[in-house]
Every structure is written in structure tokens, then in C-alpha cells.
Design a protein that fits this description.
- The chain is built from 7 helices and 9 strands.
- It is an alpha/beta fold.
- Strand 1, helix 3 and strand 2 form a beta-alpha-beta unit.
- The longest helix has 14 residues.
Amino acid sequence: MQESFWLQRWHANQIGFHARQVNDLLRRHWATLATSSEAPVLVPLCGKSLDIAWLAARGHRVIGVELAEVAVAAFFAEQGVQPVISEEGAFKVYRHGHVELRCGDFFALEAQHLQGCALFYDRAALIALPAEMRERYVSHLCSVLPAGSQGLLVTLDYDQAVMDGPPFSVSDADVQGWSAKMWRSELLESQDALEPRFEARGLACMTERAYRLQLL
């Protein structure tokens, strides 16, 4: 997607993709990945997700990356805290407590920004990208995190001939397709995710899946 698309959505407050609660798959499965509550966690395309605060409350240093500064500023405002803001290369960085949100292009992220980080959580990044951008995203994720890094990936799967994204459909076959060259994957859980807003667009079925990934 073009950067302007997401910036326009945030500035117009057209953020139906923003979940108003912590993801239940994250609650149920995060403990199977994180051996230490203090380990840093990368959250790509994080928006103002409440999942950030949930991870930080468990002691993790959370490093989020988000294109829209309005989303970054809103996260801290809604948490009722005043971040320290600095300019660091390609990013404008907001920090408070355990949370560091980098405002800028995910593809400008470098391994040096993630020293000591070997965990990641993706609930809204892969499904935000059309198919032609996903290979680039996965490759970049693998390039900035060390081999052996573990992550929790949450996807949505539906008939994209009926409804186009975003959020885009990412099938189990898509995830498994990267398993030979990018990561090892384990399906942890599948659940029904059909909501009235998606039924109104013609969908009869939508599946949400959680995977444990290990980068190769």
C-alpha cells in the first residue's frame, strides 16, 4: 500500500482496523514464546495498539514501528503519559517507560535499532500488506532480527474475491510457503473472526490464526 493511504486513514480517523481490546490470541499464547519477561519485543506497523501496553506491563521493552505519527502520539496520550521525543536518523522516536515507538518507514529499520531483540509480535503488519509487498516485508523482518528469533504471528483468512483488503487475507498456505526459506512455523490456534462489518461487505467466513514462528 502507498504510504499516503495509511496516513490519510489515520488523519481521517478511519481506523476500523484498530482493535479496542488486547488480542485474545496474544493473551493465550505469548507465554509459550517469551522465556523472559524482560526481553525486548519488536512490533511492526504497531499503530496505537493496546497490545503494546499489555506487553510493556509484563516487563518487556517494546519497540514499535509506525508510519503515522498521529497514531504514535495517540498511543501515549491514551496511556496518559508524556513521552520523550527525539530525532534519530530516519525515525522520530517517542519513548516512555518500557515503550519505544519509532515513527517512520518500517523498511528503514536496521538491526542496530534492535540490539538485544529476538522476539517479535505481528498482529497487524502482514495482513496490512498486499501480496506483492509481503515477500519484501518478511525478508526485511528476517534481515533486522537475528536467526533463531521467535515471534507470534496473527493472520486473517477469508475469500478475497468477495472482499478486498485491507486487512488482506493471508492463508495457511501463504505462511507455510515461507517456512522453507524464512522461518519455521507452528499453528497454535484458529478461531472464527467474522464480524458484522465484514458480513456487511459480503463475507460468510473469516478465520483468525495464531502461529509461533522461528526465524531461520
